[in-house]
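ingest -> fold -> write
write: protein_1
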Amino acid sequence: MIKKLNIKGCFEIIYKKKKDKRGYFLRVFDFKSIYPKNFNIRQISISYNKKKGTFRGFHFQKKPFEENKFVFCVNGSILDIIIDLRKNSRTYLKKITKIISVKKNNIIFIPKGCAHGFLTLEKNTKVQYIMDKPYSVMHSTGINIKSKIVGKIRNIKIISNKDKKLEIFN
């Protein structure tokens, strides 16, 4: 099932698991289905988070390394937060939150030009990213969690010093 979200070009995919006595099988990526044309995998990453309340974000890459990405949980669950930073988008500065979890079998597609962050809702949460651009330290940036646009995110227990030093966006 595919659900359009309230940011232009952003959508959620909810998969059905094929279960039997052995366990289950879940296909999470299939180019023949609804994925954007011209999406070529350039990087796959996993974020392991030991503790509940770990916050990562709000990250994005600047041109020419803007990236489209799919985000899903391999273990645990997250509160996923996306902010549209595309000035000519009809959803510019709109923010959405979505719970992504192994139990829900859902994946979120985040289009380039959007900032992304998440808060772990369980300990030992693993988040997988599939991206169409490689990481570039020179083009990597983000929005400080204290920015007005972010609003209030509750229950943050851990955040990196790097994320604390990101620029305030107002």
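write: protein_2
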Amino acid sequence: MIPVILSQTGTGSSRPFQADYWFTPFNVGFGCVVSGTVTYTVQHTFDDIQNPNITPTWFNHPTVASLSANQDGNYAFQVAAIRLNVSAGSGTATLTIIQSGD
């Protein structure tokens, strides 16, 4: 799969990346690079982000949460979508996501 790049400058959330949870095996690797000063968290949801009648519930990644330095991580089990949330700072956090599968 082609890498997907999400960025967020200042506080707020990036657009979500809709994962293809039908891929077998489901493997998503990601890395977040910080420019300037930010505090960020990688988040995921199990909700259908395409359904306008649903407000997704976002969960923090277990190890990539409330960070201010470059970090990588992964999802080994299915999630519906992934996003980047910046809770503080005026810099930029850039998340690169690569999903494997067949």
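write: annotation protein_2
The chain has a mean pLDDT of 95.
Residues 22-100 form one domain.
pipeline exit 0
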